[in-house]
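Dear Dr. H.,

I hope your travels went smoothly. While you were away I took the liberty of generating a structure for the chain from your last submission, since the lab meeting agenda had it listed for discussion. I wanted you to have the full record in hand beforehand rather than looking at slides cold. The sequence, exactly as received, is reproduced here:
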Amino acid sequence: MDRVHQLQLLKQLQEVDFVLVELNLYLDTHPDDLQALQQFNWYVQQSKEIRKTYESQYGPLLGFGYSFNQYPNGWDEGPWPWEV
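The corresponding predicted structure, in token form, is as follows:
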């Protein structure tokens, strides 16, 4: 069951980050669209929350200082996100 939850969080993160990419592209050509900007900011918050939840339970998603490393889900814990 824990593995299922891990996969669900990764899927949610991928979906939210996909929406962020699309909104980012849209805002590049429509910078005055307040509703799109509000949606972008809402999805940024969702992405942060999902990422924080994932990392607190399963370890860091990113290296090079972009993710905190914490015990007990640190660098030597597996599987890595790309191994799931």
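Two observations you may find useful: The mean pLDDT is 84. The chain is about 65% helix and 0% strand.

With kind regards,
E. W.
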